[in-house]
Amino acid sequence: MKFQIDVEMTPAELRKLMGLPDLEALQQRMLDDIQARIEQGVEGYDPMELMQPYLKTSLAGMDMMQRLFAAGMGAAAAAGKKQTSGSGGD
User: Fold this and answer.
1) InterPro entries given for it (predicted)?
2) CB 65 within 8 Å of CB 58
């Protein structure tokens, strides 16, 4: 038996549903900070060096979310196998 559920929602609604924070203000502050540094004409401006502090934390957060989803999917698959093998063949 298969079930398919289609859900339409915006990215903001999905974040709220999953309990994730709204990072729009933080992202805007980051962009404003970058723009201010560019406008100041920072000598030897290197975009990657400028983004490094922000990338470290965001990549770590993305890695954590991937591991969380993988663990959840693995647990769901294991539970499904237990139900299938324990059902005695319908």
Assistant:
1) DUF6489 (IPR045502)
2) no
What are the φ and ψ backbone dihedral angles of 8, each rounded to 5 degrees?
A: -105, 125
How do residues 9-62 score in pLDDT, each as one tens digit? Answer: 998 888 888 888 888 888 899 888 878 877 777 666 666 776 777 766 676 777
Query: According to DSSP H, which parts of 19-46 are helical?
Result: 24-39
H/E element holding 12?
Answer: helix 11-18
Please, which residues have CB within 8 angstroms of residue 10's CB and are 6 or more apart in sequence?
Answer: none
> Please, what's the b/e burial string for 63-75 (b: 16 or more CB within 10 A of its CB; e: otherwise)?
eeeeeeeeeeeee
Q: How far apart are CA 15 and CA 22, in angstroms?
A: 7
